[in-house]
UniProtKB/TrEMBL annotation:
Top-level taxon: Bacteria
UniProt-listed Gene3D superfamilies: TolB, C-terminal domain (2.120.10.30)
First and last residue of the signal peptide: 1-18
Keyword field contains Signal: yes
Name of one Pfam family that matches: GSDH
Keyword annotations of the record: Signal
Name of protein: Glucose/arabinose dehydrogenase
Domain annotation Glucose/Sorbosone dehydrogenase: ranges: 29-353
Length: 356
């Protein structure tokens, strides 16, 4: 699929299209954060920021225990969940969370457990990776987990409110890390053997990336929060620097200029950005299954404007804003096995299924 890599400045909101069909799947969810579809009709797992998982099947919902202790402070807590392609064989579930540290702070971590059929608890739970260092603040943990076509794990992490840490390769802040399924460092990671650099880092210079997905070709895309404006969609390249906080299309909340401007040699330009900020969270790039009109399009939840932004995957222009009573503070968006879009509303405390 041809991509046009250009920066699009959104001067005004995209048109609001006719409402799609939306069905309530589950309600009563306290601060839901992420959706994970199980294969073979086994249902859906939803993480709650407070530190638990809800297993939703047709007509029923039950809690899943066995998780490690999480720091549910500020933006931290139990965050993303990822069901690998070989789940039917391994029964493994991956999750990210704010992990308590000896210093009294917290850092974004990647965990894994095994979920047996009908189980009420994960077993064989382990922490595979933890960012270095964490801190005591409650901001910008990231974090999304993607299983690449290369069978490796990509985990996004925010800069934890420490802006310049995103330019420091000796810290994981503001990066996308790339790991093996067991949390080890792949030999071909771009900073393996580079003095002073952490070898897990795959790309850096990110602010707070809360959306990540593969397109139809297997390319990884990540979106991230800007400050006041400058939310970005980025095509992820191994070893690339995405510029935060040296370059940005936004401004500080005070109105002050960020960094050196909007461009600098050696730093990547966003493929798309929003100004003003929509506070993006969750990302699905549609396969076209049972919805050919959506094929290749990006669907991004908005925490600020209570809608789902649909961006054309070829021209990288915003096509529409799906805004309904259900789309209040959308935290996650995911394509289901049948091609429907599933999304979480924090304010409604609900999981929904949407079709064109």
């Amino acid at each position: 699929m041809r991509r046009i890599f250009t920066c699009f400045f959104l001067m005004s909101a995209a048109p609001i299209a006719a409402a799609p069909q939306i069905k309530l799947v589950a309600s009563g969810l306290d601060s839901p954060w992420s959706i994970g579809h199980l294969p073979d009709g086994e249902g859906v797992l939803v993480t709650l920021k407070s530190g638990s998982i809800v297993w939703i099947t047709e007509g029923a919902a039950r809690a899943v225990g066995g998780l490690p202790k999480v720091v549910a402070k500020g933006q931290g807590g139990l965050l993303d969940i990822m069901i690998p392609r070989d789940f039917a064989k391994t029964r493994q579930v991956y999750f990210s969370y704010a992990r308590p540290q000896r210093s009294g702070g917290a850092g974004t971590a990647l965990g894994r457990g095994v979920l047996d059929k009908g189980a009420s608890s994960l077993r064989s739970v382990e922490t595979l990776f933890e960012m270095k260092p964490g801190n005591s603040g409650g901001r910008h943990f990231g974090s999304r987990i993607v299983e690449g076509r290369d069978e490796l794990i990509y985990l996004t992490m925010g800069e934890r409110g420490d802006d310049m840490a995103a330019q420091d390769l000796s810290r994981h802040n503001g990066s996308v890390v790339r790991l093996t399924r067991d949390g080890k460092v792949p030999d071909d990671n771009p900073f393996v053997g580079v003095a002073g650099a952490l070898p897990e880092i795959y790309s850096y210079g990110h602010r707070n990336p809360q959306g990540a997905a593969l397109d139809g070709s297997g390319q990884l895309w990540v979106h991230e929060h800007g400050a006041q404006g400058g939310d970005e969609i980025n095509r992820i390249i191994a070893g690339a620097n995405y510029g935060w906080p040296v370059i940005s299309y936004g401004r500080h909340y005070s109105g002050a200029k960020i960094g050196e401007g909007t461009a600098k040699e050696g730093m990547q330009q966003p493929t798309f950005y929003w100004d003003p900020s929509i506070a993006p969270s969750g990302l699905a790039i549609h396969s076209g299954t049972n919805a050919p009109e959506w094929k290749g399009d990006f669907f991004i939840g908005s925490l600020k404007f209570d809608m789902i932004s649909r961006v054309d995957g070829d021209t990288m222009q915003e096509l529409e804003r799906i805004k309904t009573p259900e789309t209040l503070r959308v935290r996650d968006v995911e394509e289901g096995p049948d091609g429907a879009l599933w999304f979480l509303s924090e304010i409604n405390g609900a999981l929904y299924r949407m079709t064109p």
